[in-house]
Amino acid sequence: MSTLGQIGIIGNGSWGTALAKILTDNGHSIYWWLRNKEAVDHLKNRHHNAHYLTSVRFMPDTIKPTDDLLTLVNACDTLLICVPSAYALQVIQQIPAESWKNKIVISAIKGILPEHNLLLNDYLVGNEHFDLQKYVSITGPCHAEEVAYERLSYLTFSSLDDTTAEAVAEAFQNSYIFTSFNHDIWGSQFAAVLKNIYAIGAGIAHGLDYGDNFLSVYITACYREMYRFSEAHFEKVHPSNERPDFHTSSYLGDLLVTSYSLHSRNRTFGTMVGKGYSVKAAQLEMNMVAEGYYASRGMQAISNSFGIDTPIAAKIYEILWLGRSAADVFIEIERMLS
Fold first, then answer.
1. C-alpha span between 193 and 119 (Å, rounded)
2. Helix %, strand %, coil % of the chain (to 5)
3. Class of the CATH-defined domain 7-183
4. 266: helix, strand or coil
5. If the chain, 338 residues long, is cut into consecutive pieces of 10 residues, what is the mean pLDDT of each piece?
6. How far apart, in whole angstroms, are the C-alpha atoms of residue 161 and residue 132?
7. Which DSSP helix (H) or strand (E) runs through 113?
8. Coil, strand, or helix at residue 178?
9. Quick one: pLDDT at residue 327?
10. Are 168 and 139 in contact (CB under 8 A)?
11. Strand locations in the chain, DSSP E?
């Protein structure tokens, strides 16, 4: 714990609540930033999140809820950021540049910052002069709902600094969370971004009444595309020659669970689109953020900038952002698969 010091969580959705549960179950006392005073008061008085994973209870002496972001930042050595990517920048920009110095940042953002088409680490380095060695990303496969039930789940922590990654992994390890770590901070995060896009596609296919046979071929093709992107991107940007194993749970496993699970909000969102909901109507009906929607636009810009083709992700983008018929696009996807 000495390496991480005081931990503060920024964000109070289901994922932030699940990570708060893990840390407090492991004996860590945390600061926790929530969006408004009502949410803070509810957590203080009722000892559970009012809106997300409401069955998860917290001992009062393990959490320090606040709606004052800078109070948390100034009190903490390690910042765990769990805000949905679509809203992350407006939160991050409230933190002065000098406050990022000497902080460890753990990103649980499962997407890219849509205003800049950047991962959080690239934004912090470019705009806040952040030390990249102090950055750690979290990837799954791990659904917040299963953490709430303490069903065995897996987390991978990625950092260029092995000591920091190992310390963070150790902080989260317990009887229902198995952890591992690697140095692929870009690849693991882009895999998490892509799998959300592909999971929306899986949901659209389900909504269009495609069966399991088609879905198995579709997901295989998605993984092949993810693997090609991961390999090509690693060669272009990573400072190490030590190539990670892209066939592990944080890449393939996370794709599988997000595409198949009923807990997957991206699959649920896609199913609604496949059944004929407009994108806006599906968003309003869900009342939760499907990260793959925003990611589908950002990944087109990123893929183009690196010259790496992602044709399946591009087809999902055409449905979500260009208004193309889901049925017509999936006929084209059928012809792409083998």
1. 10
2. 55, 10, 35
3. alpha beta
4. helix
5. 86 94 97 94 94 94 96 97 93 94 94 93 92 95 93 95 95 96 92 96 98 96 96 84 81 92 93 96 85 94 95 98 97 92
6. 9
7. none
8. strand
9. 98
10. no
11. 7-10, 30-33, 63-66, 78-81, 104-107, 135-139, 153-158, 177-182
Lookup result for tokens 């092949």? 224
Q: With b meaning 16 or more CB within 10 Å and e meaning fewer, what string describes 188-200? A: bbbbbbbbbbbbb
Q: Which residues make up the CATH 3.40.50.720 domain(s) of the chain?
A: 7-183
Q: Which of 173, 182, 155, 177 is nearest to 245 (CA)?
A: 182
Report the C-alpha gap between 29 and 231 in whole angstroms: 39
- Strand ranges across the sheet with 135-139: 63-66, 30-33, 7-10, 78-81, 104-107, 135-139, 153-158, 177-182
pLDDT at 238: 80
The answer to whether 187 and 237 have CB atoms below 8 angstroms apart is no
| Residue 118 vs residues 63, 104, 109, 281, 285: alpha-carbon distances, Å | 31, 19, 12, 27, 28
| DSSP bridge pairs for 136 | 106
Task: Please tell me the CATH superfamily of domain 186-336, with its number.
Answer: N-(1-d-carboxylethyl)-l-norvaline Dehydrogenase; domain 2 (1.10.1040.10)
Q: How much is the pLDDT for 287?
A: 75
Q: In degrees, to the nearest 5, what angle opens at C-alpha 91 toward C-alphas 90 and 94?
A: 95
pLDDT of residue 20: 97
| 229: its two tokens | 């992107």
Residues carrying CATH 1.10.1040.10, the chain: 186-336
Strand partners, 157: 138, 181
* The pLDDT value given to residue 66: 97
Please report the DSSP string for 198-214 in residue order: HHHHHHHHHHTT--HHH
Entry pTM? 0.93
